[in-house]
Structure formats: C-alpha cells, structure tokens
Design a protein that fits this description.
Layout (H helix, E strand, L loop, with lengths): L1 H19 L6 H8 L3 H5 L5 H24 L7 H18 L1 H9 L14 H22 L15 H10 L5 H22 L10 H15 L9
Length: 228
C-alpha cells in the first residue's frame, strides 16, 4: 500500500505540472487531490524537493532503460540500427511522458534545489555512456568524415572525460564532440514536438523525425537500416 500511494503521489504531481506548469507541484496540492492531510504526505516525501528529485530520477531511469533495451535488441556491429533504435525509443518515451520530458529536460521547477550530485546522476551517466557508445560503434565509418584535432580533452567536463577514458579508451576528443552533436539532433525535434511547435507545421512529425535520424545516420558514413 505504501508503494502504491507513493506512486499515486508521483502521478498526481506530473498531472498537476501538465495542467499548471512546474509551479503547480506542491505537497499540499497533491494532498488535496488525494484527500489526505499535508502531514500524511510528508510521511512519504519530507519536502517538495525530495519529491521532484524522485520524479526526475524515476523518469530519467525509465527512459534510459527503454533506450538500452531497444538498442540491445540489435547486435553491436549494427551501428546504424542501434542508433535508430535508441532515437526511436527516446521519442516514444517523450511522447508517452510529455510532462516528464519537460521536467527532466525543459521546465525548471521554481526554487527547486537538486542534490549536490544531481537529481539523476546514475541515469544521466548511463544516457551519456549509451550515446557515446553509439558513436564509438559508428566511429570507424564516421572518422574520415569528421574534422581532426579540432577539440581537446580540456574542452569537456572532467567527469565526462574520465568516463570516456574508462569505457572507450580509443576515442579521441573529436568523437566526444560528435556524441554531443548527435544528442542535440535527437533532442531538437523531439523537444519541438513535445512543446507543440511541430503540430502547427506538419501533420506527421514522426516522419520528419525519422528523416532527420536517417540523415544523421548517413552523416556518420552509415546506411540507414531500410537502405534509404
């Protein structure tokens, strides 16, 4: 029962945010929706910041797990297919959880103070490692098409550099920059769609997104999975 109530609290928090924006997330408002006293809610989450941190961690972890599962259905040598699978899973998760996407990637909750290590440090690390791994898989084909010597390790966060050195010791700084650019291309159209901007321009944003990912795959020297 406790786990069920805790989940209901999180669901209502996202519903409140979807209806009223980040300002609408408050323990008292959630208590009213659930017919509970504020003191009872505090037995589950001592502060609003604790609830927001839990929400972000849960949502980010759910995305990473779905993306990793989609990617891992394909063999490591299928760099194009794995990238498309990750990108598709990202969009599917975002559209299924628009309020969650906005909480993780978009709208800051006014006054929210994340823990020193971040709200979802482990999920963020997995997402970063996953994207870098996709670029590492594509790098033999992508390298001849990239600039060389443009980036130095000092251009990147030391924590990111340490992770890359540990997991992908053969990758140069230019490949890390490429991973960040890939992230940007995956994120851009999804963000426009979640925030409602694409729907005024096209009846088929999914088609536009797939075309963008196919173009991304070709820019890495790979062939999209359907051969187009």
């Amino acid at each position: 029962m406790r786990a069920q109530t805790a989940q209901e609290i999180k669901t209502i928090a996202l519903d409140l945010m979807a209806a009223g924006g980040p300002d609408a997330i408050s323990l008292r408002a959630i208590a009213r929706e659930m017919g509970m006293t504020a003191n009872a809610i505090y037995g589950y989450y001592a502060t609003r910041d604790e609830l927001v941190t839990t929400l972000i961690a849960d949502l980010y972890t759910a995305f990473v797990e779905s993306a990793e599962a989609a990617r891992d259905q394909l063999p490591p040598q299928d760099a194009a297919g794995r990238l498309l699978a990750w990108a598709t899973a990202f969009r599917q998760w975002a559209l299924a959880n628009p309020a969650g996407f906005r909480l993780v990637y978009g709208d800051p909750v006014p006054g929210y103070q994340a823990p020193p290590e971040g709200a979802a440090a482990e999920a963020e690390r997995r997402a970063c490692t996953g994207l870098t791994g996709l670029v590492a898989g594509a790098w033999p084909d992508a390298e001849p098409l990239q600039s060389h010597g443009t980036y130095q390790w000092s251009d990147f966060d030391p924590g990111l550099v340490a992770t890359v050195h540990e997991r992908f010791p053969d990758l140069p700084p230019d490949a890390v920059a490429l991973a960040l650019r890939v992230w940007g291309r995956l994120h851009g159209l999804v963000s426009l769609e979640v925030y409602g901007h694409l729907h005024t321009q096209t009846a088929n944003p999914g088609k536009v997104y797939r075309t963008e990912i196919h173009d991304l795959i070709r820019s890495l020297g790979l062939t999209p999975p359907d051969g187009s």
